Amino acid sequence: MSGQGQRLNVVPTVTMLGAMKARLVGATRGHALLKKKSDALTVQFRQILKKIVSTKESMGDIMRSSSFALTEAKYAAGDNIKHVVLESVRSASVRVRSRQENIAGVRLPKFEHFTDSAGDSKASLTGLARGGQQVQACRAAHIKAIEVLVELASLQTSFLTLDEAIKTTNRRVNALENVVKPRIENTISYIKGELDELEREDFFRLKKIQGYKKREMERQMQAAKNFAEEKRAEDFSLQKGISMNSAYNLLVSGAERDEDIIF
């Protein structure tokens, strides 16, 4: 689902604009960090893949050598070698332990093999009476095969863990890049547009109020002028003993003559 053309449902205010800008900064920073994490995991993923390929290529030769060594030991020591080995060994000499390795915040399981000296001392004397050298060579070949298998198991487990971590990280990177950031940017554009529209409406409202006040002032001034002319005409009519209309006409004609004289 793309975030192009979509925005968050917010109230277009200056406070919300600041909050959206802060969220955009956080989303940008998180996108950059997740991108770096994805690149680091991808590099480690490719290295592990190369190790898996090389280990699998060498595992064929090692397993073939161990099988051939077992055949040589059976030929030299006889068919009863299996019972002799099982009776002489009470505990495993090669053991496996696990630990965790942190790669860019992802914990990868690692398997390591180690040799137990108690079990090794008993198995070292196996087959000395008959074909002991071949038995020890077979044992060394199988120990090497176990080591390769442990290493391959560790690489395969790390490979699967990294693959899942890379997929999750890439999904988050794509979500931030294609959904979250475009939505926040669209929301910021929407808030800016609404704030500009409100500012234009306030400016238009102020202009209308100023025009109304100006017309009201002109009306009051005209009313005051008319009142003064009526008062003057009333005084002139009382002085001359004529009607109000005649006095008003005489005053108007006199004012016009004065204007003609001035010009």
TrEMBL record:
InterPro entries attached here? V_ATPase_D
Q: Pfam families, per this entry?
A: ATP-synt_D
Q: Which residues form a coiled coil?
A: none
Molecular function terms, GO-annotated: proton-transporting ATPase activity, rotational mechanism
Keywords, A to Z? Ion transport, Transport
Could you say which protein family the record assigns here? Answer: Belongs to the V-ATPase D subunit family.
* NCBIfam families cross-referenced by the UniProt entry: V_ATPase_subD
According to UniProt, the name of this protein is V-type proton ATPase subunit D
What species does this protein belong to? Vanilla planifolia (Vanilla)
